[in-house]
Specification:
By secondary structure, the protein is α+β, with helices and mostly antiparallel strands. It is 17% helix and 22% strand. The strands form nine sheets. Strands 1-2-29-28-27 form a five-stranded antiparallel beta sheet. A four-stranded antiparallel beta sheet has the order 3-4-5-6, with no helix packed on it. The two termini are 34 Å apart.
Length: 677
């Protein structure tokens, strides 16, 4: 199946692979190693464990792997054969997988190659599609056992049979068509189009374009760089909406059904979702490159667990009684594949509850390869529903105590129990009981202080919100009785049990006491009054003295911040989950990025003499903290209108969803202006 020239080219590229996939003898050894996810996740606050014999996930390491030749094997080869042994064929950047007739097809975007792996025989080799595929970036299977390969080079999704013959080609003759992934939906093929931020629907047989679904935005059925897609057992379609940090579920006719997940750094929350897959039991799995985990949801969309983080302990390999290799956890995971292949399942180590199926994850950074996780689920989904919802509230990075809320069996965490009855807690003792956990170390601390007078010249507490001797307490804002009913389950919104209805947004909720006229006291980012005059009190939050307001929107002088660098921001805001695994905040910019920013700044200075302020390049608006990335490098803390639009001080994102986070540019542009395309 491989031409001689093609094999030579693939061989040269494969020699630089960081993690190597080879033959079957290693498969049994590697699949026999595992570390129960219960031990892994308890150290990191995910709490994705399950009763009756461990957590829902077993980490098995790489699907198949081989090491580079050792010094000994190299010396022996040179001694006996007079040549250095070749580095085995392997992966560099696996991005997607599909399974057809028991074979696993792996798309490697760096090698621009599709590999075929056969679990039963252990054969692993590149598949030659000739000149028909130039730059594959995704692969999917169809109901009749064919392959849909997304080719970024050809800007098309090409349908192949398993012999490598082209069956159909789905494409649009348009610059605004950039296919990312595909899925077969009935007699149609859906293609995610990142350039136009929508889905394109083609007739599966004729390849004729039928319609488009959605457009750029953050509302229902709107997308920001849609990526991976998957069918559910009931025939709906899940679409990864990357820039909106969520997955959307659509009916087969394209109508919107619901969101799954949301932005954040907790179980069930995303920073950069990449792919989605659905198990035969309806469990939904979503990879997130920001949290570097796979997040699992039940059929109802409730978050159940997250596993595979970069900081999770590695899994030891067992080979002939030796423990000489390790399989690292995930770092920037991408594609997903669910497999209940009997060959894979038969070789898994025996455990109290054997996995229902295997979750395969494409790992791109740390020893690129295919990670294998066994999904056991929860022994009693009905009995454990409350616990699974409870787990979904837990932070991935902070909480170290088990969340007693929304669990009918955990009343004794806060209350003294007399048989099945919970004794009331004296009002004076409530706040101390809450802070015992919510101290910012064991569990998330609440931002608002207790003990302040409830009514002041600037605030009035609603009459039905309780006070503790006229002062604010935890119960003033949080109605904890909502979780006391044995039938209560954690809601998708307002899990913090804030009082009022539909007031989950922080500013809206705060205005119940502070009033609309006092909104500027809550957010220092509101620097203008109605007539456009600068409110100097808002400036005083961050600046020791009100800076000058240059008419051309270019920086002059020193800002005289009250704290150095990002400290001024982190005094109120928590550090958010970073897209980059190493973290941007505080990192020194590389020489190449510094050159781009300096060039943009110079161009901005030249353009400032022109009346066309829109010509100012966005890159000129990215300030640094002594050569390092700060919060204000990417976020513009100033209210729109304070400075002229499209100037270094006034430039802000054009997309509403990105402007809501005060980003200086739309997220895609924000990354490209520093890192290039």
């Amino acid at each position: 199946m491989i031409s001689s020239s093609g094999a030579q080219g693939i061989g040269r590229r494969a020699c630089i692979a960081g993690a190597l996939l080879v033959a079957a003898p290693m498969l049994l050894a590697i699949l026999n190693c595992r570390e129960d996810a219960q031990r892994v996740t308890q150290r990191h606050g995910s709490h994705d464990t399950a009763p009756h014999g461990g957590g829902p996930v077993i980490a098995y390491g790489n699907l198949v792997v081989a090491e580079r030749p050792s010094e000994t094997s190299i010396a022996l080869s040179e001694f006996f054969f007079g040549t250095t042994p070749e580095t085995p064929l392997g992966l560099i950047k696996p991005v997607a997988m599909a399974q057809v007739d028991g074979a696993i097809w792996i798309c490697d975007s760096a090698l621009r190659t599709i590999f075929r792996y056969e679990p039963h025989s252990g054969r692993f080799k590149p598949f030659d599609f000739g000149e028909l595929v130039s730059r594959p970036v995704s692969i999917a299977s169809t109901e009749n056992g064919q392959l849909l390969i997304t080719d970024a080079g050809a800007k098309a999704v090409i349908r192949f049979d398993t012999r490598g013959r082209e069956v159909a080609r789905y494409a649009l003759q348009s610059d605004s068509f950039s296919p990312a992934a595909s899925v077969e939906v009935g007699d149609a093929v859906w293609v995610s189009n990142t350039a136009a931020h929508r889905l394109e629907v083609f007739n599966a047989k004729t390849a004729q374009h039928v319609r488009s679904i959605g457009h750029r935005g953050s509302g229902r059925g709107q997308f920001g760089s849609p990526l991976g897609m998957a069918r559910t057992p009931r025939g709906t379609v899940l679409v990864v909406d990357m820039l909106n940090d969520r997955v959307q579920e659509l009916d087969a006719d394209g109508s919107w059904r619901r969101y799954i997940g949301r932005p954040g750094d907790r179980v069930g929350c995303f920073g950069r979702p990449k792919d989605v897959a659905v198990g035969p039991d309806g469990t939904i799995f979503i990879t997130d490159a920001a949290s570097q985990r796979v997040h699992a949801f039940d059929e109802a969309g409730g978050a159940m667990a997250a596993f595979g983080g970069a900081s999770d302990p590695v899994t030891s390999m067992k080979s002939s009684g030796r423990k000489d290799r390790t399989a690292p956890a995930l770092s920037v995971p991408n594609g997903l594949l669910i497999s209940d292949d009997p060959t894979l399942l038969a070789n898994l180590e025996e455990s109290p509850r054997k996995p229902k199926y295997v979750v395969l994850v494409a790992e791109q950074i740390r020893r690129p390869g295919i990670r294998a996780f066994g999904w056991r689920g929860f022994a009693d989904r009905a009995a454990d529903a409350g616990a699974s919802r409870q787990r979904s509230t837990t932070s991935l990075v902070q909480a170290t105590v088990e969340n007693p809320h929304w669990s009918a069996t955990r009343c004794d965490t806060c209350h003294t129990m007399t048989g099945p009855q919970a004794a009331p807690i004296p009002v004076a003792d409530v706040d101390a009981g809450c802070i015992k956990c919510h101290d910012g170390i064991h569990a998330v601390a609440e931002a608002h202080p207790v003990g302040r007078p409830g009514t002041t010249n600037n605030t009035t507490v609603p009459q039905d919100w309780p006070l503790n001797e006229g002062r604010l307490g935890c119960l003033t804002c949080h109605d904890v009785r909502r979780h006391c009913d044995v039938t209560s389950t954690r809601p998708a919104r307002n899990s913090a049990m804030l009082r009022g209805s539909g007031l989950e947004g922080s500013v809206k909720f705060c205005l119940q006491c502070h009033g609309d006229a006092e909104a500027w006291r809550i957010s220092p980012h509101q620097q203008l009054v109605a007539n456009g005059v600068v409110r100097e009190e808002s400036c005083a939050y961050c600046h020791a003295a009100t800076p000058t307001r240059p008419a051309d929107g270019h920086r002059t002088g020193q800002p005289q911040l009250r704290a150095a660098g990002s400290s001024i921001c982190l005094g109120c805001h928590s550090k958010h989950w970073d897209y980059f695994p190493g973290g941007h905040l505080g990192q020194a910019v590389t020489g190449r990025i510094a050159e781009r920013l300096l060039a943009a700044r110079a161009e901005s200075a030249i353009d400032s003499s022109s009346s066309d302020s829109a010509s100012t390049p966005p890159g000129a608006a990215y300030p640094l903290d002594e050569g390092r990335v700060a919060c204000y490098t990417c976020h513009n803390p100033h209210q729109r209108g304070l400075f002229a639009d499209n100037t270094p001080l006034g430039h802000q994102a054009s997309l509403e969803a990105d402007a809501a986070f005060l980003l200086r540019d739309d997220r895609q542009d924000l990354c490209r202006n520093c890192h290039g395309k």
